[in-house]
Amino acid sequence: MSTTMTTESGRTGTDPVEGPGAVVLDGVTKHYGEATAVREMSLSIEPGEFISLLGPSGCGKTTTLRMIAGFEQPDAGDIRVSGRSVLGVPAYRRDVNTVFQAYALFPHMSVAENVAYGLQQRRTPKAEIRERVASALDLVQMRRFADRKSTQLSGGQQQRIALARALVNRPSVLLLDEPLGALDRQLREEMQLELKLLQSRLGITFVFVTHDQGEALSMSDRIAIMRDGRIEQLADADTVYARPSSAYVAAFVGQQNFIEGALTASRDGIATAHGIVQATTARPDLPAGSVAQAAIRPEFVEVADASAAGEDAPTRPNLVRGTLIGVSHLGETMQYLVRVGDDLSVIARRPTPDAPRLAVGDEVVCSWRTESVQLFALDAAAAEAGYVEPPTN
Amino acid sequence: MRNLRFGLAVPAWTWLILFFVLPVGAVIWFSFGYKPGLFGTHANDILSFDRYAEALTPTFFDVFLNTLWVGITGTVICLLIGLPVAYWMAVKSPPSIRGLLIAIVMVPYWANFLVRTIGWQIILAPEGWFSNLLQGIGLTDAPLEILYTRSAVLLGVVYNYLPLMILPLYVAFDRVGDSLREASKDLGANRFSTFVRVTIPLARPGIIVGALLVYIPLMGDYITATVLGGAQGNMVGQLVASQFQTAQNWALGSAMAVLLILVIMASAAVIGGLLWLVALPFRNRYTVTLEEAR
Ligand SMILES: Nc1ncnc2c1ncn2[C@@H]1O[C@H](COP(=O)(O)OP(=O)(O)O)[C@@H](O)[C@H]1O
Ligand SMILES: [Mg+2]
């Protein structure tokens, strides 16, 4: 088994009893011709959980969702919803609804008719349909748009209708494929809050696909970080942020400064071209002397004027000297880009109120605490993914 | 801005006037005239409705009914064949072969209309190879007796006009897209419900275009009827053609042509209205308004 899964939360593994709303993927594989979209993926989602599938474009998130919904059949493995295998069960008979990325509202129907569609398929009595459509529209605050054509709505409004159209069926599982991707930032943040509130109120299992780590961090009970059709780490937001299981996860969730070097004999630091980078916890699983990566988040890097530190201050671990080549105001924080030697850029971010006053061209020192350093086996692809474009000013 | 837009539309207007308004206008104008003598084709110095009265004989009436029958039956058959074929092409067939499929649908159009119709005349001939083949393998024991019947005309028009049905239907089905069908299935609709409630309503403009593209030229067709129908396959188009070409009576031919145009428009409107009425209960059944709830 190549899938890495943390067991810190103690929630992985197959539950003996999978209640209504539980979703279990068991060694699921999906090929498209030569390409493998999902490989031996196993994931156990609890009833009422808000889980995010997070990963870059093309890592297999949509394919996973489509297999749960019933639009694709896995080539291997089993998928269970509410304890029952759904292999071979057509999409229209699954107790699962989807909010599609492009909403997929029916353009020839009014808002109310879109929402009523699922209930009409179930031959719900007309009076009950009206009631449930009305309350579903109330839920997303769209009641007064009931008689509009779905084509006469803004993106955010269409999004709400797509949500109401799915929720009105009271599915045990709701699948959402980057539902907020097309909205502008402010609306997106509003909808994140609303979605989360709605989910905890309704107690429906949400499987939420996103490539936006901020979105995943702010909404999810647990996050499955995917890479090349596999789950790289499965844990809650705190764990994923503070204790990423690999350089890839570290790079994908938040930003990182990566420094390469040889693992020291004690295996709790690396020797780099710019001095020792020291961590608190050792990596006994990695061979001493092997090339490893240290990851330090920009928010943990202190930056100060080099003259204040003293021209000949002793070099110590976790301190590098360089030239400030960029300062940018990000609102709540100031971001500094420091060039160290000719092969390393360090990004530091300080809260705006107590950010040091520095000018581009200043000689500066960057330093950080040992607790802020994470050591990983070298993963060139991950470092690439985590590379941050220098600010352009 | 207005001027520019008007200017850009000039070619379109010119086209419409030169190739539609002027010819049709001329036909209407001639229809009020008369045939001046043995060697004249038309004269308009005295205007009257006399040619219309002259056209409306019982024979002409029979031919009209026959034309309507062939037109409607032919269009319905084209729809019945075109719907599943176009749906399969646009939705079910492997995307990589769709270009090829469209080319195959168009293949008959590489040959001249008359030539491919005569092709059918050869196939359907009582002593032709097809008839002999059928007798040879024992499917029939007498020569094929379909040529110069209404069935032969029907077969010919379906063959000649089917591509005009399939292409707009293909475009319409293709444009509906997979995502709405998937949304429908996601909401609990099986294939049939999805087809009836999502695919067909969204493809409706294409269906209407296809039906009109087949119905209108089919109603005016005279080549197919002449080649495959003989005396049995009398269509109004043949009468109009014979007035212009044989009798050299352009006035009477024009009156018949105008009547044909009117019948085509009126019948299309009536059929459209009837279909709309028939679909009404279906639409009402799925209409949802929240106001009545209170
Ligand atoms: N219908 C398809 N045919 C061929 N390849 C596909 C198809 N759908 C997805 N893929 C491939 O599978 C991989 C995963 O795709 P997808 O699940 O859409 O990723 P994500 O949603 O994470 O961006 C990609 O490499 C993509 O090119
Ligand atoms: Mg996707």
TrEMBL record, chain A:
Coiled coil: none annotated. GO terms for cellular component: ATP-binding cassette (ABC) transporter complex. InterPro entries: AAA+_ATPase (IPR003593), ABC_SmlMolc_Importer (IPR050093), ABC_transporter-like_ATP-bd (IPR003439), ABC_transporter-like_CS (IPR017871), Mo/tungstate-bd_C_term_dom (IPR008995), P-loop_NTPase (IPR027417), PotA-like (IPR005893), Transp-assoc_OB_typ2 (IPR013611). Residues 1-14 have a biased composition (Low complexity). GO terms for molecular function: ABC-type polyamine transporter activity; ATP binding; ATP hydrolysis activity. Gene3D superfamilies: 2.40.50.100, P-loop containing nucleotide triphosphate hydrolases (3.40.50.300). Keywords: ATP-binding, Cell membrane, Membrane, Nucleotide-binding, Translocase, Transport. It is an enzyme of class 7 (translocase). Its EC number is 7.6.2.11. Residues 23-253 form the ABC transporter domain. It catalyses: ATP + H2O + polyamine-[polyamine-binding protein]Side 1 = ADP + phosphate + polyamineSide 2 + [polyamine-binding protein]Side 1. Residues 1-20 are annotated as: Disordered. The keyword Acyltransferase does not apply. PANTHER family: SPERMIDINE/PUTRESCINE IMPORT ATP-BINDING PROTEIN POTA (PTHR42781), SPERMIDINE_PUTRESCINE IMPORT ATP-BINDING PROTEIN POTA (PTHR42781:SF4). The complex is composed of two ATP-binding proteins (PotA), two transmembrane proteins (PotB and PotC) and a solute-binding protein (PotD). Part of the ABC transporter complex PotABCD involved in spermidine/putrescine import. Responsible for energy coupling to the transport system. Belongs to the ABC transporter superfamily. Spermidine/putrescine importer (TC 3.A.1.11.1) family. This is Spermidine/putrescine import ATP-binding protein PotA. It comes from Agromyces terreus. The lineage of its organism: Bacteria, Bacillati, Actinomycetota, Actinomycetes, Micrococcales.
From TrEMBL, chain B:
Gene3D superfamilies: MetI-like. GO terms for cellular component: plasma membrane. Belongs to the binding-protein-dependent transport system permease family. CysTW subfamily. Pfam families: BPD_transp_1. Coiled coil: none annotated. It is found in: Cell membrane. Keywords: Cell membrane, Membrane, Transmembrane, Transmembrane helix, Transport. One of its GO terms (biological process) is transmembrane transport. Residues 64-271 form the ABC transmembrane type-1 domain. This is Spermidine/putrescine transport system permease protein. It is a multi-pass membrane protein. It comes from the Bacteria. InterPro entries: MetI-like, MetI-like_sf. CDD domains: TM_PBP2 (cd06261). The chain crosses the membrane at residues 12-32, 68-88, 100-123, 152-173, 194-216, 250-278.
